[in-house]
Amino acid sequence: ELRARLRAVRHTVLVLSGKGGVGKSTFSALLAHGLAADETKQVALLDIDICGPSIPKMMGLEGEQVHQSGSGWSPVYVEENLGVMSVGFLLSSPDDAVIWRGPKKNGLIKQFLRDVDWGEVDYLIVDTPPGTSDEHLSIVQYLSATHIDGAVIVTTPQEVSLQDVRKEINFCRKVKLPIIGVVENMSGFVCPKCKNESQIFPPTTGGAEKMCQNLSVSLLGKVPLDPQIGKSCDRGQSFLAEAPESPATLSYRNIIQRIQEYCEQHHLQEEKIM
User: Could you list the residue ranges that cross the membrane (predicted)?
Assistant: First the structure.
């Protein structure tokens, strides 16, 4: 059933981090917006952060409900070519706590993959909770029935974050999940008035760049802090569209392009093998 449902998905990208609060959901939302800017591409964003579903708020879909059709659950659409699914759409209030044990979470993840009628999709982006446990094992196991292009791992520059991100890289290697690369989020802040750059989160051990060198992983890019990102997320708007000239937007666009290139290359290699 899973294989049949996901046969129409061309590329699958997981967004991971061992650390909470590094901006995984923000990155997932902006990656989806960036990919969907090409109107010829169909993009799906799946939020499997069961206990902290922030994607509905960030995508401007708070209060929306999931509808059942003959072919399964219909995603909630931001644009004609950008569909979203999240446990947030199943709660009666955004403030409801999801107090579930592992098996129930895993069951819902399986249901999202098996029962959501995405249709033909070029990119499926999966936003995950922090850590390396139940939800992560489930999504990798279920998607192994089809294919995963790889994982993008999000970190911030300080050692407290990198420590947990190294665990995530180790997790990917143990479960044979390809790593597309690492994104260093909140990488410095340029004052809009004086133009001086400050390191809000100092990279005391060399930041993501040094970690990537040590672990032989690609660094996809560094995204500087921009207060507008938080404002856009709170309003459910795309920061990329609202602040097209921001250094953070330019960084995001370069990262998105690198992810697209990786996925296309991965697809060609799979076709050769087949």
Answer: none
